[in-house]
Amino acid sequence: MTIEIAQRLLAWYQKHSRHLPWRDVVDPYRVWVSEIMLQQTRVDTVIPYYQRWMERFPTLTHLARANEQEVLQAWEGLGYYSRGRNLHRAARLVMEKYGGKLPCQREQLQKLPGIGRYTAAAIASIAFGQDAPALDGNVRRVLARLFDVRLPVRSAEGEERLRQLAAEHLPAGRAGDYNQALMDLGATICTPRAPACERCPLAALCQARALNLQEERPLTVKRPPVPHLIASAAVLRRHDGRVLITQRPAKGLLGGLWEFPGSKLEAGETPAASLQREINEELGVQIEVNQAIGVYRHAYTHFRVTLHAYECILIDGEPQAIHASDLRWVKLQALNHYPMGKIDRQIARQLQNGKGA
Prior knowledge:
By secondary structure, this protein is α+β, with helices and mostly antiparallel strands. 42% of the residues lie in helices and 14% in strands.
């Protein structure tokens, strides 16, 4: 059965593999960038970002020589910004430690920022031909159904069982194609809901399908409710029309990005009152909150946020970067040069289009 699984899978992959831009050339740098971008992000979303990235940073050397703000600007909108920062840090480490060549061994790859066990195995197998099984979400789902794994796939025991199965059935010397075939099968046929079993090359060997349990695999652990945060942001304007933006600390959520200064509401606060308090604490100034600009919503991995933006007037003091990394008074048309998260970019575009107060 071991040989049959690999043979069926690889024959299917040869005919039906997805045509993806990072598969055009076997270049370790391109494989690495694509794998980092694909973490928790759909392929269709990644493709245009990947293509623009390669135009801007065509080689590892170009990336290492860039500054962090250039990297974050290229990453803007893709989310999970620590991935971009880690990619940049790792490129500089590769230049310093490995002479600009990405190491080929999993153990060395895992020592680089942002490269975990899966990503190291994917790069090692796809870019360097190493016999390393790689478990992403698609591969976990395929294996859990194929072998009717009755353990939660995200548990330590379930993860180890899937890793054993992937390794047992890996064809020597074909790990790169094998891993990508499992990924493609999970993405196009063995989907989370309504898998197209009638088109699956492994249908006759699938244990969950034989028991009519394919919709019940993989087993998952129910997640707790997602917290909902209410926040507010201030659009502070100077007499010359410039607006104030602040830079978030390098570490943490949206690290290094620019934003309109704001606050999270505390119990019993209104958005306006919260904004007055926080701006005083964060920037050392007093403001008057005027009319609302808009309400913006966004979902992150572990929480969702609703943000209220207001036009505000500075009535006492000069803003200081007390908790922010930096602050700038910026012309509206220049806001495009500062990398921002999705909500702040929406506010910036609204102001640029003359829709603010």
